């Protein structure tokens, strides 16, 4: 008996067919469009293939399934593949399951430039099927925060396409919730997120998604309870604006500029009073939500001052509100460092804590000290997986909000976290890394790529002795700027901005930073060289994709670290020489530092190709190119101190022949050199000393 089959090829179509819902639901329509793109890409040109007519993919609801579940089956008699979903998200996940499991598109295919091998068709047996499993976390998704790269970069000159790709990637990896931007940047993307079927959550700085008090009432300092009616008007406005949408509401009270409310109203000085005010605001917001939608999911962030007050028993939170605990920005469930204050207090959900719990977790963090923003977490994935497993063991499974930032630098971390929010705590990290390398880089180079990944985490320097105290790329950009700026201020005492890292005199602080850099540089230099060798090996085997992706990912990140670390070392050297009065060498080493930061920025821009043109242009938070600019400012000051006020001695030493250097009849017969020209004149004499 001949086995019954159906065939997918470039002519296959995707349709909505549900007698209870005649029009295609808008969220499902977006996913249908994505799958149609994937079909056209996976199969050769849509040209007819001899043999069976192509199967149609038909999508419908199956209300007997649990929320968000799906099954995909083959109806060979009708020559159809049936996607049955419990609801919009179930249908969406089923469509993306076809793309992933049968067509070969990985969840982060776009961000890693992955495409399946093109073929003529795919033949499926009649018993082929795909079935979902309940996710380990109920609400799970991303906070698109500090999104400075993707707001300035567009897909086909359309920034909405950029955001659509972010949201569709989140859906592909099983997410169902998003905070679509930072602060007031959220509002332009709310509608797209909702149209694509995602729940919307709100940043802790904007409870209920309401406008900030200072925005709505400029020039007015908020006071509680006097301004309660003004707050309530903003809350009601936001609730009405989002009526009928899928929202996980955020409750709380914060001040302007994402700080404690008592920064605006300093009359509240005791913890008891502050806890009472926040509790009153939470209760009022809660009552408004319950009056509008009695069953709506509601959350509150135990972040910063809210965590401290809750830990002291001073916050009254309704029982059915999801409490969101926050990591410290470095992957560990601890209170975050704030300036020089770092209590190292656990912030892990407690299994004994009543009610539902969730987490706010950072794949990317911006703290102007030592975190990672344009590179992936330097903390080991073994530690990350253990920490998230502990979260699940402590009943932290109601809501995960992951700071995904600009997505592309953090794909591996985001993929690992998505595996755990789907499947739970039992993740074999080595197997995950091997599988990730195969899926995105290919079978042949996968072992080498997995070793490079491990090399990335092994290279990370520590600013402390705990696993979560690793130096991200901000360490090697903000600290040299702190050192240069403190020197330029004329202050030679301890630099307070470095006190979180090391206490003592300014010279001692510089030496401490330089020691960290001196130890880290050889590791990143070796890693960058290993990445380039692996890319060349891939090219030798005819694998241009793997070579490009190695250079775009681990290779680029290793280079950013190498150049930034080298630049930081040179800044430390320059300022140390300046403190000793050697302004000539200090100027020169500041110039060499500027070159290294410029090289780091150039490395990013060199990896802009195809759709990625301009992606790295707006690196304005870590801002490697600005580190170079600060070095240029330092150079000008050092030249002023060492060669001013007449600016001829360095010219004679580095621009004149030896027999004329000490002949001073006329100070100079040519224009004064720019700092750049003087630096290059020194470089001709001194080289790369």
SSE blueprint and pairings:
Layout: E1 5-9, E2 14-16, H1 26-42, E3 56-61, E4 70-75, E5 80-85, H2 88-103, E6 121-125, E7 129-131, E8 139-143, H3 148-151, H4 159-172, E9 177-179, H5 187-195, E10 199-201, H6 213-216, H7 228-241, E11 247-251, H8 271-292, E12 298-302, H9 305-311, E13 322-326, E14 357-362, H10 381-393, E15 399-403, H11 411-423, H12 429-441, H13 446-459, H14 475-488, H15 506-540, H16 544-579, H17 583-606, H18 624-643, H19 649-655, H20 675-686
Parallel strand pairs: 2-3, 3-5, 8-9, 8-15, 9-10, 10-11, 11-12, 12-13, 13-14, 14-15
Antiparallel strand pairs: 1-6, 4-5, 4-7
Key features of this structure:
689 residues, Chitobiase, domain 2, TIM Barrel, 4 domains, five-stranded mixed sheet, 45% helix, GH115_sf, hydrolase, Glycosyl hydrolase family 115, GH115
Walk me through what this model shows:
This protein folds into 4 domains: 127 residues, 2-Layer Sandwich (Chitobiase, domain 2); 289 residues, Glycosyl hydrolase family 115 (TIM Barrel, Alpha-Beta Barrel), CATH 3.20.20; 185 residues, no CATH class; 45 residues, no CATH class. The chain is built from 20 helices and 15 strands. 45% of the residues lie in helices and 10% in strands. An 8-stranded parallel barrel has the order 8-9-10-11-12-13-14-15, surrounded by 4 helices. It has 689 residues and is an alpha/beta fold.
What's the helix count? 20
Task: Indicate the CATH architecture of the largest domain.
Answer: Alpha-Beta Barrel
Number of individual domains: 4
Low-confidence stretches: none
Question: Over the alpha carbons, how many angstroms does the gyration radius reach?
Answer: 29 Å
Q: Mean pLDDT, rounded to whole units?
A: 95
Beta-strand segment tally: 15
- Spatial gap, N to C terminus: 80 Å
Strand order of the largest sheet: 8-9-10-11-12-13-14-15
Organism: Bifidobacterium vespertilionis
Protein name: Glycosyl hydrolase family 115
Keywords: Hydrolase
GO molecular function: hydrolase activity
């Amino acid at each position: 008996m001949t086995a019954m089959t159906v065939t997918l090829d470039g002519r296959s179509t995707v349709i909505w067919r549900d007698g209870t819902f005649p029009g295609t639901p808008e969220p499902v329509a977006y996913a249908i469009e994505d799958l149609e793109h994937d079909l056209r890409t996976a199969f050769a040109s849509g040209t007819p293939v001899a043999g069976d007519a192509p199967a149609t993919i038909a999508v419908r609801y199956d209300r007997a399934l649990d929320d968000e579940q799906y099954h995909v089956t083959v109806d060979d008699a009708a020559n159809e593949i049936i996607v049955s979903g419990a609801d919009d998200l179930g249908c969406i996940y089923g469509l993306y399951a076809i793309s992933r499991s049968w067509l070969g598109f990985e969840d982060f295919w776009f961000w890693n430039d992955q495409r399946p091998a093109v073929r003529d068709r795919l033949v499926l047996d009649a018993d082929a099927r795909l079935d979902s499993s309940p996710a380990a976390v109920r609400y799970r998704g991303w906070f698109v925060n500090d999104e400075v790269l993707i707001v300035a970069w567009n897909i086909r000159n359309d920034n909405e396409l950029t955001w659509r790709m972010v949201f569709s990637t989140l859906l592909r990896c099983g997410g169902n919730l998003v905070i679509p931007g930072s602060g007031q940047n959220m509002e332009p993307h709310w509608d797209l997120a909702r149209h694509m079927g995602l729940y919307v959550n709100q940043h802790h700085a904007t409870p209920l998604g309401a406008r900030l008090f200072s925005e709505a009432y400029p020039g007015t300092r908020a006071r509680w309870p006097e301004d309660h009616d003004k707050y309530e008007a903003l809350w009601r406005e936001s609730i009405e604006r989002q009526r009928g949408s899928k929202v996980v509401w955020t409750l709380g009270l914060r001040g302007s500029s994402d700080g404690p409310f008592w920064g605006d109203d300093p009359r509240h000085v005791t913890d008891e009073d502050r806890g009472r005010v926040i509790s009153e605001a939470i209760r009022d917001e809660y009552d408004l939500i319950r009056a509008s939608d009695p069953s709506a999911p509601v959350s509150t962030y135990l972040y910063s001052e809210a965590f401290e007050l809750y830990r002291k028993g001073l916050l009254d939170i309704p029982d059915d509100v999801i409490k969101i605990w926050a990591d410290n920005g470095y992957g560990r469930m601890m209170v975050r460092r704030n300036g020089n204050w770092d209590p190292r207090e656990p912030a892990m959900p407690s299994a004994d804590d009543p009610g539902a719990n969730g987490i706010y977790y950072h794949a990317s963090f911006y703290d102007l000290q030592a975190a990672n923003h344009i590179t992936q977490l330097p903390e080991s994935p073994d530690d990350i997986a253990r920490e998230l497993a502990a979260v699940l063991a402590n009943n932290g499974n109601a809501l995960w909000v992951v700071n995904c930032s600009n997505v592309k630098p953090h794909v591996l971390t985001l993929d690992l976290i998505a595996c755990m929010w789907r499947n739970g705590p039992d993740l074999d990290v080595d197997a995950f890394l091997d599988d990730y390398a195969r899926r995105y880089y290919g079978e042949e180079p996968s072992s080498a790529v997995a070793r490079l990944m491990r090399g990335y985490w092994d290279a990370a320097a520590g600013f402390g002795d705990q696993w979560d105290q690793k130096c991200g790329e901000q360490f090697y950009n903000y600290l040299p700027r702190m050192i240069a700026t403190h020197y330029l201020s004329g202050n030679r005492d301890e630099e307070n901005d470095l006190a979180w890292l090391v206490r003592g005199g300014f010279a001692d602080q510089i030496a401490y930073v330089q020691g960290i850099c001196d130890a880290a540089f050889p590791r990143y230099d070796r890693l960058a060289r290993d990445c380039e060798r692996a890319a060349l090996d891939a090219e030798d085997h005819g694998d241009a994709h793997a070579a490009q992706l190695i250079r775009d990912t681990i290779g680029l990140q290793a280079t950013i670290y190498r150049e930034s670390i080298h630049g930081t070392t040179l800044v430390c050297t320059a300022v140390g020489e300046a403190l000793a009065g050697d302004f000539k060498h200090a100027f020169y080493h500041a110039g060499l530092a500027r070159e290294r930061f410029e090289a780091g920025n150039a490395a990013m821009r060199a990896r802009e190709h195809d759709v990625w043109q301009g992606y790295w242009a707006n690196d304005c938070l870590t801002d490697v190119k600005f580190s170079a600019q600060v070095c240029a400012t330092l150079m000008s000051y050092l030249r002023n101190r060492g060669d001013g006020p007449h600016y001829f001695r360095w010219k004679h030493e580095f621009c004149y022949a030896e027999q004329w250097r000490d002949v001073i009849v006329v100070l100079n017969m040519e224009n004064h050199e720019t700092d750049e020209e003087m630096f290059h004149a020194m470089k001709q004499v001194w080289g790369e000393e």
